[in-house]
Write a structure and sequence with these properties.
The chain is of the alpha/beta class and about 230 residues long. Helix content is about 30%, strand content about 15%. It contains eight helices and eleven strands. The chain starts with a strand and ends with a helix.
């Protein structure tokens, strides 16, 4: 049976450049939609976070920014359904990434706080890229790439085509001016070939070798479906 490891942020906040904390966590749709794509296909699913901490859902993802009322109402029900999995994640340091066909990082602003500098996650990503194993990062979670060891051409993601939450989308979200750094800028500075949609908040998936990335919450299901199609064809 194919297997997927979901790596979620353990942070419930993002520290802004003035030192204040912005309440956050993982974005509901970015976990629920991919989870259900893989679950419906019969895949074995494991969840891990740094330290095995129960992840926090970003409440914003269950409000107006999360979609129409019918959609957020369904997401709340889905999170209740998935509570047993979410409440008991494995510690990221205890999992063997090589045991999984896919490692999938959902986003939300949480990864900007912890996964962007987590050495365990960084080494996991380095190992998967070196081995050519399928790895997916969605929305803000490409921030986890920044923790992968290596500089310049030695950075595991140097020269890779990818996407992630854009500067334009961060401005619309109202956090660009408060952010200590912007994801798109940092990925490009490290040597990534970042592409984004001309119109913000449209689905966008980029595949380069074993690396799969999605730009925003709207890319959640398309990203998972692309992985499923490629690995089961």
């Amino acid at each position: 049976m194919p297997s997927v490891l979901f790596v979620l942020s353990a942070s419930d906040h993002w520290t802004l450049k003035d030192g204040t904390r912005h309440d956050t966590g993982f974005w509901a749709e970015e976990f629920v939609a991919p989870h259900d794509v893989f679950a419906e296909a019969g895949w074995d699913i494991t969840l891990a976070t740094p330290g095995g901490v129960t992840p926090t859902v970003d409440r914003t993802s269950l409000g107006v920014m999360g979609g129409l009322p019918w959609k957020t109402a369904q997401l709340k029900k889905d999170l209740e359904r998935l509570a047993p999995l979410l409440e008991h994640p494995q510690a990221l340091a205890d999992v063997d990434e090589a045991a999984y066909d896919v490692v999938f990082y959902p986003g939300g602003h949480g990864p900007l706080e912890d996964l962007a500098k987590d050495p365990v996650s960084g080494e996991l990503l380095r190992a998967r890229m070196a081995a050519g194993r399928t790895t997916a990062l969605l929305c803000h979670s490409p921030a986890a790439m920044l923790a992968a060891p290596g500089e310049g051409a030695d950075w595991p993601f140097h020269g890779y085509a990818m996407t992630g939450f854009s500067n334009a989308e961060e401005k619309i979200a109202g956090l660009a001016d408060k952010a200590p750094w912007l994801l798109q800028d940092e990925l490009e500075r490290r040597g990534a070939d970042v592409s984004t949609t001309t119109i913000p908040y449209r689905p966008h998936v980029v595949v380069d070798r074993n690396l799969y990335t999605g730009q925003n919450p709207q890319s959640s299901e398309p990203l998972a479906e692309r992985i499923l199609a490629d690995l089961t064809r």
